[in-house]
Specification:
This protein has helices at 9-24, 30-63. By secondary structure, the chain is mainly alpha-helical. It has one domain (2-63).
Amino acid sequence: MSNGVPKSFEEKLDRIDAIVKELESGRVELDRAIELFKEGKTLTRECEQLLRGAQEQVDKALNDPPPAG
């Protein structure tokens, strides 16, 4: 994770997990909680896009004809 921005799917999931833990702690001020919620929502959307792309790749691989040989 460079510059504090999660890039990989796994890094995004780790950050979402950290956000959830911080929110569940009950020690977060309202402004911070809103900021964390927005970040988590954005990361969730990004993960969903990555999963859709991975599913498309798997579907394509399954539908490709086997190599001639």
